[in-house]
Amino acid sequence: QDYTWEDHGYSLINRLYPDVGQLLDEKFQVVYNLTYNTMAMHCGVDTSMLRRAIWNYVHCVFGIRYDDYDYGEVNQLLERNLKIYIKTVACYPEKTTKQIYTQFWRHFKHSEKVHINLLLLEARMQAALLYALRAVTRYMT
User: Fold this and answer.
1) Which residues are CB-contacts of 37 (< 8 A; sequence separation ≥ 6)?
2) At what angle do helices 48-61 and 20-33 cross, to 10 degrees?
3) Is the pLDDT of residue 1 over 70?
4) Residues 6 or more apart from 113 whose CB is under 8 A from it?
5) Cβ of 79: how many Cβ atoms within 10 Å?
6) Which Pfam families does its entry note (predicted)?
7) Which of 16, 26, 62, 111 fits a 20 to 30 Å CA distance from 118?
């Protein structure tokens, strides 16, 4: 049974707290769509697939999977060190070290790495909201 932000979470949170769903959705969309269209030294790059892979990988780490997404993209686009970093920050933020931060994407700018952090933290927040809102939905029905 799919329980997605777009189809279920957004409307429930708006029903419980008017306008909060819109604010959260805008926050998720701003971070998800943020791009300079660069990757390391390359300009004019469409990063949408990478951003989607990071978002869906974070959700996958928390047990949320989407039938309409090809998870092969995650393995193609996210190198092992990046996956380790994402999982550490999302699941065990207290274990995040400068060493694992510097081990992924060595040639990338810090601003690009900061964007990764923003993506994974917002995806994590959305995943937590989905679990909480699903529990509320079950309680209400």
Assistant:
1) 43, 44, 45, 46, 47
2) 120
3) no
4) 101, 104, 105
5) 13
6) PA26 (PF04636)
7) 16
Cβ pair 41, 107 in contact under 8 A: yes
Question: Torsion angle, CA of 11/17/20/25, rounded to 10 degrees?
Answer: -20
Question: How high is the pLDDT of residue 141?
Answer: 85
Question: 66: which 2 tokens?
Answer: 């989407």
Contact 96, 124 (CB under 8 A): no
Phi/psi for 34 (5° steps) reads: -65, 125
Stated pTM of the model: 0.93
Each residue's pLDDT tens digit, 90-135: 999 999 999 999 999 988 999 999 999 999 999 999 999 999 999 9
